[in-house]
Amino acid sequence: MTHRLLMICALRSKRPVFPGDNGPDEGLSQSVRPSPPVLSADRIWCGPDAITRRSAAALGLDAKVRAELSEIDFGSWRGRTLDDVAGADPGGFQSWTTDPSQAAHGGESIEALLTRAKRWLAECERLPGRTIAVAPASVLKACMLHVFDAPARSFFCIDVEPLSSVVLSSDGRRWALRVTSEPRSEMSEVGRRQSKLRA
């Protein structure tokens, strides 16, 4: 069974802090204006946090919330800056940046996030047609690591820009990252929509 998954990275908070759901009034890294839908799929999902839901709405997507697409749980570090955490808990911060199994903040480890992403992709693999998913950068990174069968420590080697997108394709046996040049593909439509959102 073939499945095509378009993943779009959600916007971020203006404040450079460990992310968390600080409510619908949290400032976004870029201005957004709601637009009519330009994308279609058999199912459209998004993460439950306010910024991700607002990102999906700004893209004109009527998305259903899925808990599997949640931002990584940073526990007691939510809303705090890197410098603040590194200064207050240098040992915990160091362990988090070097050992994917550690969760010094009391929330979710990177390995736990990767397991969550793997399970969600396994579910998608059993579905026909196309899926669009708007999710935080951490979730996109976790899905890409699974596709490449890369070690968990590679999480810190990937940067995902807000509103960037990636297409993952499955034939029912394995996932592959798909690079497309189709002029009328959903990637082209997303690109046009993203350009308007960044304006």
TrEMBL record:
<dbReference type="InterPro" id="IPR013078">
    <property type="entry name" value="His_Pase_superF_clade-1"/>
</dbReference>
<dbReference type="Pfam" id="PF00300">
    <property type="entry name" value="His_Phos_1"/>
</dbReference>
<dbReference type="InterPro" id="IPR029033">
    <property type="entry name" value="His_PPase_superfam"/>
</dbReference>
<protein>
    <submittedName>
        <fullName>Histidine phosphatase family protein</fullName>
    </submittedName>
</protein>
